[in-house]
Write a structure and sequence with these properties.
Largest sheet: 4 strands, antiparallel
Distance between the termini: 30 Å
Order of helices and strands: EHEHHHHHEHEH
Protein name: Magnesium transporter
Radius of gyration: 22 Å
Structural class: alpha+beta
Strand order of the largest sheet: 2-3-1-4
Organism: Pseudomonas triclosanedens
Transmembrane segments: 63-82, 88-107
Strand content: 5-15%
Number of domains: 2
Keywords: Membrane, Transmembrane, Transmembrane helix
């Protein structure tokens, strides 16, 4: 899948683009609007980026997890090589300390990421601060012509680049979840 970015200063037009793409077979889960104008965005029926995904939690959480896993392995290795695991307590204290270090590092990394904007927000910060909106669409190769056709009818959309899309399996899970939610 590929991600296409567009910039616009008109949420009404983005709403029309989203509707046209949806009517052409592109799922709502594949489209998102990133904007600093939350109050204005609430007045439209657009699939906005969740506030948590505007932060760099996932990236920093992964770094925290990697650091914590390294610390956990180090603790277990030191415990084994020093002979502390041969005491009456055995492996329990070492395993507990390793688990605490792993979880704390994951939590701390995620906390750091919660305080930083995501890559998409950083990439488009000047446009967002200028009151413009970023619209991005994740499309499969066979959906590219549909996207091109719809975008061609909206000359005010500025092409802002391309990027890595949400994995297809994750989009499938989100689509299944939304179908389930709407059945209830």
């Amino acid at each position: 899948m590929n991600r296409h970015y567009y910039i616009s200063d008109n949420l009404d037009e983005l709403e029309r683009v989203e509707n046209e793409l949806h009517e052409s077979g592109i799922g709502m889960e594949q489209m998102h609007v990133l904007s600093d104008q939350d109050a204005e965005l609430d007045e439209h029926r657009l699939h906005e980026v969740p506030s948590l995904l505007k932060k760099d939690v996932v990236h920093w959480g992964k770094l925290g997890l990697l650091f914590g896993a390294s610390l956990a392995v180090l603790v277990l290795l030191v415990g084994y090589l020093s002979g502390w695991t041969q005491t009456a307590a055995g492996w329990i204290p070492m395993l507990f300390l390793a688990a605490v270090l792993l979880c704390f590092s994951l939590w701390e990394g995620s906390f750091v990421g919660l305080q930083r904007p995501s890559g998409d927000v950083r990439r488009f910060e000047p446009s967002l601060h200028a009151g413009r909106h970023v619209f991005f669409v994740d499309v499969k190769p066979e959906q590219e012509p549909v996207l091109d056709m719809v975008v061609r009818h909206h000359p005010r959309l500025e092409i802002a680049g391309f990027g890595a899309a949400t994995p297809g399996w994750l989009l499938s899970v989100e689509q299944a979840w939304n179908r389930f939610r709407h059945m209830m």
